[in-house]
Amino acid sequence: MSGIKVLVALDTGVDRAAVENALPVDTEIQIVGLVDGLEESWATLQEVPADLLLVGCAGYSDRALYLIDGAVKQDTDRPVMVLADGSPNGFVKRVFEAGADDILTLPQQPDDLLFAIQKAVARKQGATSSGSVAVSPMICVLGPKGGTGKTLTACNLAVGLAVAGYRVAIVDLDLQFGDVGLSLGLAPEKTIYDLAKSGGSMDADKLDGYLATHESGVRALLAPTRPDHAGLITTEFLREVYSTLRATHDYLIVDTPPGFTPEVIASIDSSSHICVVGMLDSLSLKNTKLGMETLDLMGYDRDRTRFVLNRADSRVGISIEDVIAIVGRAPDVAIPSDRDIPVSVNSGTPIVLAKGRSDAAKAFRNLTALYNGGAPTRNGRMRLFGRKA
Ligand SMILES: Nc1ncnc2c1ncn2[C@@H]1O[C@H](COP(=O)(O)OP(=O)(O)OP(=O)(O)O)[C@@H](O)[C@H]1O
Ligand SMILES: [Mg+2]
User: Fold this and answer.
1) Which ligand is closest to the CA of 355, given by its number?
2) Are 166 and 372 in contact (CB under 8 A)?
3) What residues contact residue 148 under an 8 Å CB cut-off, 6+ apart?
């Protein structure tokens, strides 16, 4: 994602240093102006292109409301955010009524402001570019920490749904180190990078030419083969990919890299469901809790989130009660550690196919059932397909 250009407008009376201290020093954000006075800011806004307007004000400010209103009317696609010293009575409501996307109080940590800015931009882009009504479920598989079993879960969920007869697409959003292709035994002949590079408008037929087909029927849009190719994938492009795949499949599964990158945030915003994968160790569980809290902050409905606990063996000395105490909720599904899992990953055959009777495969089938309402199969029939010899 290229840098987000932010114009900062400072109302009289606001603590300039507090605003400056809150500004993220990050290559993703480019401060194109820090203007004293809201009238001056309005003038600057006409001349300097900005992706987001950030208004700093001391308290209740009619001038700020006036500026927000004008800026939103002038360009409905450009998000407006407010940084206020406290949240005086009624001001928050008026700020949103004027059309602002978010309001934060000072002081503010730069990381939190950065996250809020990225979220506001990603949301606006989604609202303007997706347009059509999303149809099929889109399940975003998340885990704030690396190596928790996200790819394992995404692939087994996708294959589990496909075996049950559903049309399933999977997108590997781990743009730098994606390994959905390896896990499914698919060669990256064409990847998401080739699709992005091809340019032009997106449609189902075109997209179809970039999908690899797994023996289960899962269609996969694979990650770039080189990490430096990731830069070409924008959030707008992803939203088009998602809405096209959702129109032509029963389920869309998205495997993600660790953490909340702008692409992951855009995917969360697009998705109908989330699957958080945590591991049974205290560090991973702490990160899982933080991840769940971040989803809360983003306004993501907890009922649409499932929690998978991976490597859930009693021997590590952490009980389910401990998990509930740390994360704040019980896992929906627990996946045991199983030596056949690395074997299945290495051979490119997900465990639900490679060892269908194992406890791990059963656990993944339980997860599948959570997303298809418990129906054993679509139309009551298993999908028939040739297995590898
Ligand atoms: N329950 C398990 N039992 C045995 N091995 C497992 C289990 N879960 C994961 N693994 C192994 O751990 C490794 C990491 O799993 P996976 O790639 O799914 O994690 P990830 O969250 O996608 O990682 P990354 O953040 O790097 O993308 C895999 O090689 C897999 O074989
Ligand atoms: Mg992974």
Assistant:
1) 1
2) yes
3) 258, 277, 278, 279, 284, 310
Tokens describing residue 277? 């994968």
Please state whether 281 falls in left (phi above 0), alpha (psi between -120 and 50) or beta: beta
**Nearest residue by C-alpha to atom 2 in ligand 1:** 337
How many angstroms separate the alpha carbon of residue 293 from the centre of ligand 2?
21
Q: Residues 142-187: pLDDT tens digits?
A: 998 899 999 999 999 999 999 999 999 999 999 999 999 999 999 9
Q: Which atom of ligand 1 is nearest to the CA of 146?
A: 25
308 closest CA partner among 283, 327, 293, 322: 327
Residue 226 has pLDDT above 70, yes or no: yes
Please indicate whether residue 348, judged by its CB atom, sits closer than 6 Å to ligand 1: no
- For residue 84, count other CB atoms closer than 10 A to its CB: 23
- Which residues have their alpha-adjacent CB atom under 5 A from ion ligand 2? 150-151
Tens digits of per-residue pLDDT, 105-141?
899 999 889 888 988 888 777 665 544 444 799 999 9
Q: With contact defined as beta carbons under 8 Å apart, do 55 and 9 qualify?
A: yes
31: pLDDT strictly greater than 90:
yes
Q: Is the C-beta atom of 147 inside 6 A of ligand 1?
A: yes
Q: What is the spatial distance between Cα 178 and Cα 332, in angstroms, rounded to a whole number?
A: 26
- Which of 151, 179, 344, 362 best tests ligand 1's pocket when mutated (most atoms within 8 Å of CB)? 151
Residue 120 to residue 41: CA distance in whole angstroms: 20
Return the pLDDT at 292.
92
Nearest CA to ligand 1 atom 28: 342
